[in-house]
Each structure stands twice: as structure tokens, then as C-alpha cells.
Amino acid sequence: MREEEYKQSYRVSHGVEVNRKDAEHVRKLLACVRVLDASLKAVKTGDRVIFPVTDAERAMSILADLDAVRVDVYLFPVEEKRPRSLKEALSGILSDEKLSLLPSSYDIVGDIAIIQIRPEIEDISKEIAMGITRINPSIKVVLGEVGRISGTYRLPRLIHLYGEERTWTIHRENSCVFELDVSKVYFSPRLSNERKRIFEQVGGHELVIDMFAGVGPFSIEIARHRKARVKAVELNPDAYEYMRRNIRLNRVEGLVEPILGDAAEVVPRINEAADRIIMNYPADSLSYLKYAVKAVKRGGTIHIYGFSDSLESWLREVELRLKQLGISEYGVSGKLVRVVAPRRYNVVADVLLR
User: Fold this and answer.
1) 213 occurs within a structural domain
2) Residue 8: pLDDT above 70?
3) Angle separating helix axes 192-199 and 217-226, nearest 10 degrees
4) What's the number of domains the chain is made of?
């Protein structure tokens, strides 16, 4: 370690040394009278704890009644100020030109961060990854997503940038727990609020069909929070296996029925009409709408997700497809779920069949 790094990491200061059994009580006292130095870290040594203080005399006076208290000069680690943004984390490391190219957001799935690798930031992707772990020390893995999500299973192409060499994690969302491998399944943490919006609409008496269930976030959150029954259909065998595990993890075995297969084949075989159907396959959901309208009750709701340049355009597309399917009595509303690219949105149409 260079001398300047040593000076940045440690500082000499007055401290109060106490028995470990008294440490929490002493910490609260020092904080209460505002002499605990928050810029430095406390030090543990054997059965003793040393707290940094800004005023040694005052600290000693308020601790006079305690046994085995010692005030002296010690070497304390500096409490590093955590950067609040990538720009702050990498300032002084990257040039101003490179700082202007930093991504404005990235996904966090469990303890894994995933950043989109655009061509203009490819040469600084490692620095970006290290910056992310400085902002959020709980991140243990940083992956880069190259290109777009593609294929039947909607899988990303990922490269390792920093941290542990793994793609498996446990993600917590809306009081539920999901085990998954980000390289083998599709999962978007950015849909957390949307999943909450949906489960808050569900009644406990409902039967829900989740046509593209993935590892089970919509299905499990509905079952966990609303106690409704869900038939969860998934084509990807890896996602299906994780969904089965997640059903057990969240203790909703009696409510969520996982079904492996293509929704186009599975949904027509479900012999009970659904109160609600979720179609979270934005790349091609309209191709499956004909199966949904036959499987839902009159008075039931279908949530149809897609990609579009505006919400209005998506609602027009959905209404046109409904008319082509001979559906004339319905109500439709919708919302922008998230921005996926300039002038391109993830949108949802909420269709009530009358």
C-alpha cells in the first residue's frame, strides 16, 4: 500500500476503549451527546471495543461511572463515504468524455447487477462494474448484457465483468423470494411495481392463468398476497424448474399449479374458465390472444403486454385484434410500464370482456 493510500484509509484520533459487554450502551451515550466521530470506524480488539470521539474530555466525563474505560490516541479506519452515482464513483478515474457515456440505470437481480454493454462503453465496462460495487457493496457479481434479448425463451447474452463467477442468485420482491439463473431464464426486476399493480386487483375467489409464467413472479405474488388459484404455464424447462422451487420457497403449493408447455397447446386444455389472464410476452402476445379470449369468463380481464412507440398505438393494435377475433363487447384501458429504448415502451392493455 502506498503512503497516500494509507493516509486516506486510516486516521489517528482520540478514542474511548471499553469492555465489549458495555459497547452498545457506550455507543448510544456517545452518539446522544454528539461526540461519536461518524467519519471513523470503531475498532474491535479481543474483548474490547474502541470508539472514535471528537471530544475526549467530554466523552470521559459522561463515562466516569463505568469500569475499565480508557481514553487514548488510536489508529482508526476511515468510514468511506459511499458514492451515490456511477459518475461520482468513477470521477477522477475516467475522463469527462467517458463519464458522459455512463449508463443512467442498470438492473439488480438479487446480488447480481446487469448493465447493457453499448459499443461506446465497451472499453470501460470493467470500470463501470467496479463503480457499481462501490455504490452498492452488496452486489457480488456484475454482468454485461450484449445485444438484445432474443429467442423463444427470451434469454440475454451475458458476459462476466466483475466479482464472483456465477449467474445464479436469489431475488427478493414484494415479500416473495425467487431463485433463478439470469443466464437461463427471463426475469425483469423492473416489473416489480407492475406485478404489485396486478396482484392488488385480484380477488381471492379468482382463478388466474399466467400464460408466460417464467420463474413465477406474477403467479407467486398473486397467490402469496391474494390467496387466489393460479395455473402457471411456462415453455422454458429451466424456468419451469425454478418456478417449481419458488412455489415451494414461498409456500404456495396449494395455490399455484406449474404447467410445462406451450401456452398455445396448454391453455385450450384447461377445463375451467379463468377470471383473469396474464399475457406477459411483449414480443408476440397478440399471436396468443385468440387462446386467451376463449379461456376467460365473460366479465373477466386479460392483461396483454407489448412493445410500442406509444400507449395509444398499443391500445389500437389490441382493439383491432379483438375485432378480428369477433370480440365486440369489451372495455380497454392501459398504461406505460417502462421505457425500453428511445421512443419505445413496454406497455400493457387491460381488457375487460363483457
Assistant:
1) yes
2) no
3) 40
4) 3
